[in-house]
Amino acid sequence: MIRAIITLTMATGLLLTSQVCLAAAAESGWQADPATNAALPATTRAELYKALDSYVAALKAHDPTRVKWAGQVRNTENNVALMVGDGVWATNTAVGPYDLRFADTQTGQVALFTTVAETDDTSAMALRLKVSNGLISEVETLIVRQQDSGIKFEGQKFENQPAMNEVLPAVQRLPRERMVSFASGYFDTLQLNDGTLFTRFHANCKRIENGVQTTHNASFAVVPVARLGCEEQFRMGNYRYDTRLRARRFMMIDEERGIVLAAGFIDHAGQIADYKLTDGTVVKSPVRRPHSFYLFEAFKLKDNSIEQIEANFITVPYNMPSPWDNWTR
């Protein structure tokens, strides 16, 4: 009887100690690790959106101290590691009102496609946050400052995209791994594009890049095949000059909305001059020098295919690496 009481007391003490340790770990920015704790994350979509709203409010106020930061923060702007408070924190004069947001409750991440004004110039901006126990531990920001870019996208429109905001019925949702395979297949199709498809496109597929629709848009002269839809463009082999889709990261998966958020680089070796489309038309490569794009790309999946794409990208030095390459290993 005495032994049983001692055993029960010890077990109770261990339980209480475990609870105290978990509580303390949560306050210190503890992150889930299957090697130590395989419990499901408790973050909800509402909590992630609340963290996003708080971050944007602090950004508008030029006051990073308003944000609940984790003990260790990884922060980049346009693929360069910066101290929190530097960059757009000091220069923005307005954020929004364009607001395309989605969340990954399994990994505790939230993203926003919006705009940011700096003095008299408005730029497309994409933002990804990682939230652990209410604390922000990662910030990845991409701002398309066209005054700094060699390619200017005319006629930008930042407006609500119903397809991107649609919540899919449960029966239409895909497994996370399948969602990533569609997005990665898109990059495979774009890389050394010769007309071969490695993914599937919805009949209504359209693509928005840096605030401009680049499919079914004959007025977009930058891309000769912009008048065509997603699948038709790729079947023409127009993007053969895209040498490599490198350092692909599929950071977020929003199963409810069918959205995958990816990041990476498009490298152009610049060696292709004239080439033939699959219909025999001879075209000139728009890139005749070593060149790279850094990109954020959100893929909306529906009916086992890519229905819409929202992409922001900027020019960076050729073959530039990313801090995230090491941070995510």
Give the tally of structural domains: 2
Strand content: 25-35%
Principal-axis shape equals: globular
End-to-end Cα distance = 53 Å
What is the CATH architecture descriptor of the largest domain? Answer: Roll
The helix tally amounts to 7
**Helix and strand composition category:** alpha+beta
Q: Helices and strands, in N-to-C order?
A: HHEEHEEEEEHHEEHEEEEEEH
Could you tell me the radius of gyration in angstroms?
23 Å
How many β strands by DSSP? 15
Largest sheet: 7 strands, mixed
Folded structure, characterized:
The chain is of the alpha+beta class and 329 residues long. It folds into two domains: 45-148, Nuclear Transport Factor 2, Chain: A, CATH 3.10.450.50; 162-327, Nuclear Transport Factor 2, Chain: A (Roll). Helices cover 23% and strands 34% of the residues. It has helices at 2-27, 45-60, 88-91, 162-165, 176-190, 230-235, 323-327, and strands spanning 69-77, 80-81, 94-95, 100-104, 109-118, 121-132, 135-144, 201-209, 212-213, 244-254, 259-268, 274-276, 282-284, 291-302, 305-316. The strands form three sheets. Strands 1, 2, 3, 4, 5, 6 and 7 form a seven-stranded mixed sheet that branches. A six-stranded mixed sheet has the order 9-8-15-14-11-10, covered by helices on one side. The protein has a two-stranded antiparallel ribbon with strand order 12-13. A hairpin with a 4-residue loop joins strand 4 (100-104) and strand 5 (109-118). Mean pLDDT is 90; it is low at 1-30.
